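#lab-general

N.A. 3:47 PM
ok so I finally got the sequence cleaned up, no stray characters, all 155 residues accounted for. can someone with queue access submit it? mine expired

B.Y. 3:52 PM
send it over

N.A. 3:53 PM
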Amino acid sequence: MRRIGVLLLAAALLVAIGCQRSQDRERAEKLETVDVGEGLGAGLTTAYDKQAKQVGPEVSGVLPQGFPRDLPLYTPSSLIDFGEADAGMHYLEFDTSDSAAVVRRRLRADLAKSGWRPLSTDLATSFVKGDRQAGLTIRDLSPGARIRYVYSREP
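B.Y. 4:20 PM
back already:
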């Protein structure tokens, strides 16, 4: 008999705790929604930056100073990264929604039109023009592709 009383008391306590938690959930669901303003950088622009070279509507991003004007940019694409590479070279990376095969075909043709030629016929990842070299890597992101140029800066 005593066991039954203890079990009933334990069951009553569990029901009371369960009801208390559902009331807490109801209070949490009634939180007030607050509208927030623009982020800290929302008003930033490169419009008055003397070094910025806006590429145009087909390529989003700002090219770094010294990027060779005769290296073709793939469109449409977005500049995602740039910086210093090994041996005094620099790199620039773009992402595009086009497939790696399409990008490879178009960029190789655009490089040839701009006077860049592959260093070897079987390996079209390094190109030369006069005494300058540029490396091209195209990585399949499925969907899309990442384009990476390694180049020497223009004087």
